[in-house]
Amino acid sequence: MFPDVGLPELVTLAILVVLLFGPDKLPEIIQNAAEFIRKVRAFSDSAKEDIRSELGPDFKDFEFEDLHPKTFVRKHVLDGDGIGLDLGLDEIRSALDPRKDLAEVADAVRDAAHDTEPQAAAPQVTPEKAHRPEGSARSVFDPDAT
């Protein structure tokens, strides 16, 4: 409920309560606070049951926590079960995943490198010989550079 309240804050509050009310009234104040919390919970549970009974038997398993936007999205959209919307999120994720396209490009480059590898009788191309004049018919492909 209070994610930022840690042990130092609780100790500070406890010391402040003891200083304000004194150690002799402290048990009475704790009992009153606990009783108040019990009454609020009972009132809340009663209101929830009244709302469920008014909604009818179709909403017997209705939970008020489902009305929270994060819970609603997690339960009905992302899980994809029950009455959830089937948006095809898996298909969208796979369509946007670039790994398949990159694998195809890598395979094409490997095939091109394999096709242009020099044969045993052909002379080896060194970096000094790799530069051809602009008028040459075929450019040299260096598979190690890719």
From TrEMBL:
Segments for region (Disordered): 106-146
Q: Which Gene3D superfamilies match?
A: 1.20.5.3310
Instruction: Tell me what topology the record assigns in the membrane.
Output: Single-pass membrane protein
Q: Name one Pfam family in it.
A: TatA_B_E
Q: Where in the sequence does UniProt note compositional bias of the Basic and acidic residues kind? A: 106-117
Record-linked InterPro entries: TatA/B/E (IPR003369)
**Is Protein transport included in the keywords of this UniProt record?**
yes
Q: Major location, coarse class? A: membrane
* UniProt keywords, alphabetically: Membrane, Protein transport, Translocation, Transmembrane, Transmembrane helix, Transport
Localization, UniProt = Membrane
Which domain of life does the UniProt lineage start with? Answer: Bacteria
This protein is called: Sec-independent translocase
Q: To which species is this protein native?
A: Streptomyces prunicolor
